[in-house]
Amino acid sequence: MTKLTKGEQAKQSDNAKVYNSKATSQECVSDLQRLQAENPLSEVSRDFYRLNGTYSERTYLKHFARFSSFKQAAGLSPNKMQRKVQSNVAHQSHLDVYRQFALEEVMPCVDRFLKSPKDPNYPEIAVISDIHDVHCDPFILATFIRMCELKQPDIICLNGDIFDNYEASTKYNIDLRQFIPKERFDFVQEHVFGALRKACPNAQIDFIVGNHDLRVIQLLATMDPFTRAWLSDCLGMTLSDWFGLSKHQINLHSKFDLAAFNSKEIKEQQDENFKVYYDCWVANHTHDDGFGMAGSSGHIHRPGMIQGSSLPMGSYDWMTTGCAKKPYVEYVNGRNKWTQGFGYVIIDAVNKKVQQTPYNIHGDFVVIDGHRFTRTKTGAKLH
Questions:
Q1: d(CA 155, CA 135)
Q2: What global pTM score does this model have?
Q3: 270 near 251, Cβ under 8 Å?
Q4: Residue 356 φ then ψ, to 5°
Q5: pLDDT score at 227
Q6: How far is 271 from 131, CA to CA, in rounded Å?
Q7: What is the C-alpha separation between 32 and 74, in angstroms, rounded?
Q8: Is there a contact between 364 and 139 (Cβ–Cβ < 8 Å)?
């Protein structure tokens, strides 16, 4: 004789019960509550009730559309509204972790190492974006650092996506064999922050958080077991230690709400994460037409100059700088449409006028102030 499955046994048991047309909804609910009280460690499922309940399925279904509605009426499972409230409470509690991390770790790093310009009437700013840590082009980065060494700008603006960390993105298919968090942190500390501080010991260096950098901060904020393993070789105990901000006197600039996760929220937060210099020039990783003043952005890896005007500022230019990333990386397919480069800004702080010079690099050389830089195997050569 074939042995019946549990589901078949439950259905057979229910079929043996007599339909009770006089049973009220409250009697059915009381019976379900009794069964749960007698079996506190068991889930009272539909099959469990079929086997152990008093009333047949046909009896309670005259009062309730389905078994799930029956359980909700008995208070044994949340209804749609209750589930939504529970989900919102859990979601907000989770987001509180990020906001607390921002308060304790991010905010103390903002504008911590401000410096005065050599000539307060005409401060100079070197700006670069989209380095993308180990994926950077050594020629672009070396040329930018050498230019800074020669020109000694008052401010060096790292305008977003200094880190890459595509491993933290859901957009790409990730080969975890190429998961190299420690190399990324070490690269930025040594070849970006450290090299710039050595080249320009008196410059103010500002790190404007971009969307890729946000991924890193969000992962640090979670500090779940995966993240702790991810950082097992990174010995710092604070955000400043992990990024090397204190060591190299780097100002972090982040107005991001770390609770932003979907693409729409992150885009909105990117637009809000900007820094205004001398009341006439703004650095923002993504271009926003609403500032009404001169400024610079990166993000799209395609340089350009857009002219604008406003009543208080008059005419001005918005400069989108090229990227410092290699033309090709393993997780991006298709024809390369990026242009590499960076920019230099001179500000008339008295009259609130700005002169911006983009340096777009299309090959293995670039000329800056009469100095010709050419590509070498490891970086750049100054002629």
A1: 24
A2: 0.71
A3: no
A4: -115, 135
A5: 54
A6: 20
A7: 7
A8: yes
